Amino acid sequence: MAFNKESNGGTFGFAIALVIVVGVVLAILSIELKPQKDQNSKVKKQMEILSAFMDLNKEGISRKNAEEEFKKYVQLEDAVVLDMNGNKVEGANAFDVNIQEEYKDKNKKEKDKRFPLFVAEKDGKKLFVIPVVGKGLWGPIWGNICLDEDMSTIVGASFGHKGETPGLGAEIGQKFFIDRWIGESITDENGEFLKFEIVKDNSGNAKPQKVDGITGGTITSKGVEEMANRCLSIYAIYFKQLKNQQ
């Protein structure tokens, strides 16, 4: 019996065959490209961590040499993973923890979420890099905040976003906003966490723990505030324990 291409059955059959072929091709491409995709994600993460305490362009760091430079400054053997109570999680690999996935996973209980802490060294100083993640006006926001060796003073930061409005919320990634965090402390003299507040942009006159926001980017600025307070408070507990042990 001849196959009738003009029939409904023929049309559906062709469509099903096409879907199967396309699905197989996409699956093969996904498998073959996975190593490259994983490598790109790894390098992107390394560059984001490095950007918390150095100017990548000034230092000549790009995707081509990011891995080599990362090894120079960041000691992964000293990195730790914390639980929500600021306690160290034994046997966990800090670099493998994806804080964005941890944050987005609504099925994951708070007690099971993990928070990586990276240790770096630059110009003879020990630095602590804290990844942070939150939500802006239109999508995810994230970043890395670098503390001085006193485990409290912010000496660097980098922020990223997805879908924020250019000229408004997207400005969280600009140097002028990041500079407003430099010199702030996340804890008081007793090691207790100091909560931050993003205030209306007033050209750098904000008081301690009150960081100038972005004009017209109120919701994203408040997203950064929530992100910083939620994440940094966990690390403050760990640093207090660490100082008490010294």
What does this structure look like?
The protein has 246 residues and is α+β, with helices and mostly antiparallel strands. It has one domain. Helix content is 38%, strand content 18%. The protein contains 6 helices and 7 strands; from the N terminus they run αααβαββββαββα. The strands form 2 sheets. Strands 1-2-3-4-5 form a 5-stranded antiparallel beta sheet. A two-stranded parallel ribbon has the order 6-7. A hairpin with a 2-residue loop joins strand 2 and strand 3. Helix 1 packs across helix 3. It starts with 7 loop residues before the first helix and ends with a helix.
Concise synopsis of the structure shown:
The chain is an alpha+beta fold and 246 residues long. The chain contains 6 helices and 7 strands, in the order H-H-H-E-H-E-E-E-E-H-E-E-H.
The spatial strand order of the largest sheet comes to 1-2-3-4-5
Please give the count of helices.
6
The portion of residues forming beta strands comes to 15-25%
- SSE pattern, N- to C-terminal: HHHEHEEEEHEEH
Provide the gyration radius in Å: 23 Å
Helix content: 25-40%
What gap, in angstroms, lies between the N and C termini? Answer: 86 Å
Structural class: alpha+beta
Which residues form runs of ≥5 with pLDDT under 50? Answer: none
Characteristics of this structure?
five-stranded antiparallel sheet, alpha+beta, 246 residues, globular, two-stranded parallel ribbon
